Amino acid sequence: MGLLECVVVIYLRKIYYPEGFSFPLKIIDPDIISIELLREAATLIMLLAVGAISGRTSTEKFGCFIYSFAVWDIFYYIFLKLLIGWPQSLLTWDILFLLPVTWTSPVLAPLINSITMILLAWLIISFKLPSKQRVVKPVEWALLISGALVVIISYTLDYARFMTEKHSFHELFDPSCSTAVIDTAVNYSPVSFPWLVFFAGVLLHLTVIAMLALRRFKKR
User: 205: which of 27, 28, 55, 178 lies 20 to 30 Å off by Cα?
Assistant: First the structure.
């Protein structure tokens, strides 16, 4: 799946960025955007299917899903590096998602997330304990969700800052202003990544990993 994702991205870059991928972004045909949304949905369904058929409990299924997602993301970048020599470094900027707004970050950030997801998945699925012990506690779920939201904010903060400097919130969501908003969006180039915000989210995830590891160690 990582190779397939890589190949599709190479095709898109050859079409829209023949001189090499760089910011600012170029306008993509609406038909292509619709097809891309379907492709992303299909990718997510396949990853969810891996989790559904691999785990015995809902928590194990979740663990298998995030493990698959993390491995897929890591190998996506590995294959890009092998096939086209991109990214140039772990600090090279990349587009992660386009909806509901543009997500951007250095390549290092999603790789860090992938590593924490693998650690979390390993803790969830590797210990064969009674079902009540395997379930992630509510406070841990709360920390995981909060951490994910903080990480998402870090991915979208630079873009949101850029857009709100040019348009009011009303204009951003007003259909009559869509042309002007798009014209502004295609001029966006990432300036700085909020590493402190990002690592705050990662710290929440590491806290859950530490809590699970300690509980598993005590049980053993």
Answer: 55
